[in-house]
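Researcher: I'm preparing a figure for a lab meeting and need a structural model of a single chain. I don't have an experimental structure, so a prediction will have to do for now. The sequence is pasted below. Please return the structure as tokens so I can convert it later.
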Amino acid sequence: MATRVEDVMTRNVVSLRKNAHYKEIVQVMRNRSFSAFPVLDDHDRVIGIVSEDDLLVKEAYPAPRRAGVLSRHGDRAKAGGLCAAELMHRPAITISPDATVAEAARLMHTRHVKRLPVVDGPTRRLIGIVSRADLLGVYDRPDEDITKDVLEQVIEAEFVLDRLAFEVTVSDGVVTVSGPVHSEPVALSLLAAVREVDGVVAVRDRLSYPRR
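Model: Understood. Here is the structure written out token by token.
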């Protein structure tokens, strides 16, 4: 069964209110050694993310109204910002606790973000946060656990095949699958399912089936 975001996320989240002042944000960042925080409204809903980069605009351009200094309107606004609501970037890219680790990884990759606030459905109330390091933790699984999942959950339960007819070996997360299947489409589906098992780095096809 695929690991969900709720299984790996951090539940004790450090966040900021929308009216948090610039210096307060800097102090929290320095004290907590975090580079970004979710910003919440009065109902604990995530409305944005404030990061070190957002704060550095003020440091880099202390006189933002000078013509030609800042080319982007957003940077001009942030350079003059005083609180989290004025400094943050919005909308925040969030994810559901029910999403899989693979879905979270794809979202981080495509949106070029390092962490995702985890929100509770349509209310968008903050319930956790998941980072790249959290997602990569699934690759810490022992090879023995991966082998068991491939045999029991994929071959036996999902594809209803005789697990004794297959040989599955796992070395550093690389899975080699040998055994007979009825057709090439079944083989391809089986290999795809193995790739979805938590901790699998790569899959080597040693299955035997009628070739086209």
